[in-house]
Design a protein that fits this description.
Helices cover 26% and strands 28% of the residues. With 448 residues, the chain is an alpha/beta fold. Helix 7 crosses helix 8 (363-375) and helix 8 (363-375) crosses helix 11. It starts with a strand and ends with a helix. Bound molecules: thymidine-5'-diphosphate and magnesium ion.
């Protein structure tokens, strides 16, 4: 027994918000002109009910994780890929998603045949890339198909052990009238593919492009459907790439994998701290080293600031790799608590290497880099800082101070200026650790 009725619905192509009326601006994500008509079949089906199971009666097989043979990729996945899990890999076009997946497939061929569905490149193009990456395997099957029904029927025949969809924006279901890349298509196709993966217990990797103008629906609309969301980030001008887990049902979120794009594909970076500090200017004002933490992984990174007199009426503030509002807040603290007149200064803050840092421990580094550039006094290159800064200028303790200090010691730093609340717990390391209660004290130590 089934009946269906059709109603018109308008959907924001950027976030998936739907409305019975066309809207010029999305009330959810604020995007302009992003609404597109999605003719939606509302099917009222008879529900199939599942049987209840006692938690104690459920058996699960341990060791259902498989290594991609790329340890940085495994790390971001939480220790390898879980059978039957759906992993979304999002990122800007051209950042290296297809390259990463092709390299990972090489490692996964030991499970058996792997299916690489590409709606973007021809098998010949993929072959050229595979040769460049030195990926040779009879177990990689290429499928240049974009219809969902076609992909599923071929997958059923082949019964591959892994499936990669490159990209979800090119896949469309014949059952839906809307265009490939629309929210309705992306959701429908991802959901059907997910059912397939769960039914046969195979890992499914879905590649999704992120676009800023919202002309095609972003992977964001899929985040709640899939098990794991990894974003591939990096500045296209630099070779560094970060694979960041923003959601993971099978591991810790915020874990990262670090790569370097080379002539022959992505290379793993085992020691990112060394890489991010190589080539930094020594004894130049405005450069400060911070002991930061990404997930469970410590990273020593350089933060740069440039303070210069404003040439136009309104001072400019730019923050690359750190939160813009956080930078403004810290500038206000410097102005109010330390009397630095920054009101008529342009201020630029940048994390070197195209990295993004999103934790309060970086506050101290931002503030000391700005102060260093303003005073035109360099900070000792073998000194690092960390700590959260409160509105009254107090330096607050942060988590996992010991892990950070150990990493700093590993790459040869000598001295740390840290929150007083952390300093007490850090005795017995090779590094000279100096605690400071507030910004004033900390800057005193750094500059005199
Ligand atoms: P690609 O994987 O096609 O990006 P995406 O799938 O995310 O759109 O990567 C494209 C970029 O990577 C391209 O600018 C060239 C560069 N690249 C290298 O530098 N070295 C390589 O070995 C490969 C395969 C690509
Ligand atoms: Mg690609």
């Amino acid at each position: 027994m089934s009946r269906s009725k059709t109603r018109i619905l308008y959907q924001c192509q950027s976030c998936g918000y739907s409305s019975p009326k066309w809207l010029g601006k999305c009330p959810d994500c604020g995007e302009w002109n992003s609404f597109v008509e999605e003719e939606r079949a509302v099917k009222l089906r008879k529900q199939e009910t599942a049987a209840p199971v006692k938690l104690s009666e459920i058996t699960h097989s341990t060791g259902s994780r498989h290594s991609t043979q790329i340890s940085e990729f495994d790390r971001a996945l939480g220790g390898g890929v879980v059978l039957g899990s759906v992993v979304l890999i999002g990122g800007d076009p051209g950042i290296g998603k297809s390259t990463l997946l092709l390299q990972a497939l090489k490692g996964l061929t030991k499970l058996g045949d792997v299916l690489y569905v590409s709606g973007e490149e021809s098998p010949e193009q993929i072959k050229i890339r595979a040769e460049r990456l030195n990926v040779k395997s009879d177990n990689i099957v290429l499928l240049p198909e974009t219809s969902l029904e076609g992909i599923i029927s071929i997958a059923q025949k082949l019964s591959p052990q892994v499936i990669v969809i490159d990209s979800i924006q090119t896949v469309f279901s014949l059952e839906l009238p809307s265009a490939p890349g629309s929210v309705a298509q992306i959701r429908e196709c991802a959901t059907k593919l997910m059912f397939f993966a769960k039914k046969y217990g195979i890992p499914l990797f879905i590649i999704g492009h992120v676009t800023k103008d919202g002309s095609i629906a972003g992977p964001r609309v899929l985040e709640h459907i899939v098990d794991t969301v990894l974003y591939f980030e990096g500045d296209k001008g630099t070779p560094f790439r970060i694979l960041r887990a923003v959601k993971n049902r099978f591991g810790a979120a915020n874990e990262i994998g670090v790569f370097e794009m080379s002539e022959s594909g992505l290379k793993e970076v085992d020691n990112p701290s060394e890489l991010f500090l190589s080539g930094r200017p020594i004894n130049v004002p405005g450069s400060v080293v911070v002991a930061s933490l990404e997930g469970t992984r410590p990273m020593i990174v350089e933060i740069q600031a440039l303070v210069s007199a404003t040439s136009f009426g309104v001072p400019r503030r730019t923050a690359l790799g750190v939160d813009y509002n956080r930078v403004n807040l810290l500038i206000a603290v410097l102005d109010k608590r330390l009397g630095m007149r920054l009101g008529d200064m342009d201020i630029f803050v940048n994390v070197v290497g195209g990295l993004k840092i999103d934790e309060p421990a970086v506050d101290m580094a931002i503030i000391s880099a700005v102060a260093s550039s303003f005073k035109n006094k360099p900070v000792d290159p073998w000194t690092f800082v960390f700590g959260e800064i409160g509105l009254s200028g107090e330096l607050r303790a942060i988590s996992q101070a010991e892990t950070r200090v150990k990493e700093a010691a590993k790459i040869g730093l000598k001295k740390g200026v840290v929150p007083a609340g952390n300093a007490g717990t850090l005795k017995g390391t090779d590094i000279e650790v100096i605690g400071a209660k507030n910004v004033e004290e900390a800057l005193e130590i750094l500059f005199f």
